[in-house]
Amino acid sequence: MKNILDDDTRPTNSVAERLAKTYYLSCLDQNSTIEALGSTPIDELLSQLGGWNISSSGFNVTSWKLQSAIELAQNTYSRSVFFAWMVAPDERNSSRHIITLDQGGLTLPSRDYYLNKTDREKTVTALKQYITQVGVLMGSNEEEAKTQAESIVNLELRMAEVTMPEDERRDEKALYNKMRIMDLQRLASFIDWVSFFRSGFSLVNISVTGRTEVVVLVPSYFRQLSVIIKDILAKPTGKITLANYIGWQTVNSLVGALAPSFREAQRVLQRALMGADGAEATWRQCISDTNNVLGLALSSMFVREVFDEQSKPVAEQMVREVKNAFKENLPYLNWMDDETRELAKDKADHVTDMIGFPSFISDRDKLDAKFEGLEMREAEYFDNNLRISQWMLLKNMRRLQRPSQRGEWDMSPIQVNAYYTPSKNQIVFPAGILQAPFYDKNYPSRSLNFGAMGVVMGHELTHAFDDQGREYDKEGNLKQWWNNRTIEAFQQRAKCFIDQYSSYKLNNDSINGKSTLGENMADNGGLKAAFHAYRGWLQSNTEFAPLPGVNLTHEQLFYVGFAQVWCSTETPEATHMQVLVDAHSPAKYRVIGTLSNSVEFSKTYKCKPTSPMNPPRKCEVW
């Protein structure tokens, strides 16, 4: 991508591509405009929010209003202070959209960093240093900045205490709490919610009243947050504390668009969290940023210049083979009743897939239409980020009066990832993952493709039937469609996975078998479906000759293909953060845990009974 973006001789075929290139150049900042501006851009933004007490943006405690500060931060500048909200598919009626609210607003990536004593000593101390240094850069003296940093962190600590842990958020039905805005007002009265939503939706000419429905994922959080905020407001310094928190959250979310001195201040926290300062080449960071905000435009160039389009039909065929293997296994699952089994097959038949990239990115007019109303300017990186945030917020709000549709890409096609969307019953495999090490049409054994990319395909398909995905029917609606006895049998088998993965440790961190349950099920189910798909492929195709110099069969190479994509090295801090925040198990145990459950793996590699990779008790659902 760097070569494409840096080459001025390559034509940019569309407005969308020019937007991406302009944003990229504004990020590179070859004229040092960002450094010259210093804190000026963020000072101007903070003054709109009523100021920040530890900056030179001006702050008047008498005129400052919590309501207007939250409305501006959330609905003008799209910053998630105190909570997060968006328009999303209604999970009980997936054809429509609904306003959805969730807990949020913490600087650190997990509540555990605030509540665990060991983490607090290291990471919270680094957070205070980071806030203090930013305050100094914005005009405060160090002692005052330290005092205000302490109050911000203390507020976030109280918010962390009422934040629901991730392992308690696995039950989708428990998270679906539909109510009217007037009911939300009674639940959490720290702001006027009708006024809050009107401040946003008025920008897109959508009417909101007290009877407008919303879904609140964690009502207990909003109820307790309201108590916390009212308690703070009752104190003489309450407004200052809340204004400082909102100011800080706004600054922190935009630090990457400020002068290098601000990014340098952030590194003390990055070192505490990751064991490294996170510094990377500017061009690499700028490509990543461009992909995050203008991924479809960037993908148009990637597909035209780099992507091997022959990969797409081959991958489409592989998805069909993996899906067929998954369905063919259903009759052998003796824990399911016949009716649920038939419904599961029907759901698998209804899973749609999107592979590579959407066709419209090759059509200039259609691609440009996706970015209508968005402007970029080469010397305005900070403002470009605000423009994108505001444009995306307006785009999201307009969905409230539009039906939910399959076929929308929620991830950039050049992303090396894949996903399943329960409300659409849809699996997506972007072009970015259809490359080595996951996929290469020139691999000397098809087994390597099935072991790597095939398992990813099986993994995403299995998500439709994991502990969360199984709660959605074939149309993507949240409803019970399983027999109660089958649910009980499923839960017993799920407990096997919870116990197995909870027994694994990395650097004295135990994996949370509950919060990683869905991903562990998907890894195990995906491996099995892909292996049987490969065997099915062999029935009508001829494999290459054995690899010279490698004393492995093609079936053994299948498992090599699976395992090698998870080769990685991480600092202890990064591993610790993954255990706390990632729904996936660490790479090591994605391999060991999954393979040790596989009967076919043990047979293929002739593992001795009761050996570590062939334990007598194996966990299996799909």
UniProtKB/TrEMBL annotation:
Entry keywords, A to Z: Hydrolase, Metal-binding, Metalloprotease, Protease, Zinc
A Pfam family this chain is assigned to: Peptidase_M13_N
Assigned GO CC terms: plasma membrane
Keyword presence, Hydrolase: yes
Every Peptidase M13 N-terminal domain range: 1-358
Residue ranges annotated for the Peptidase M13 C-terminal domain, each copy included: 417-621
InterPro entries for the chain: MetalloPept_cat_dom_sf (IPR024079), Peptidase_M13 (IPR000718), Peptidase_M13_C (IPR018497), Peptidase_M13_dom_2 (IPR042089), Peptidase_M13_N (IPR008753)
GO annotation terms (biological process): protein processing
Cofactor: Zn(2+)
GO molecular function: metal ion binding; metalloendopeptidase activity
PANTHER family: FI17812P1-RELATED, ZINC METALLOPROTEASE FAMILY M13 NEPRILYSIN-RELATED
Family the entry assigns: Belongs to the peptidase M13 family.
Protein name: Endothelin-converting enzyme 1
Organism: Varroa destructor (Honeybee mite)
Taxonomic lineage of the native organism: Eukaryota, Metazoa, Ecdysozoa, Arthropoda, Chelicerata
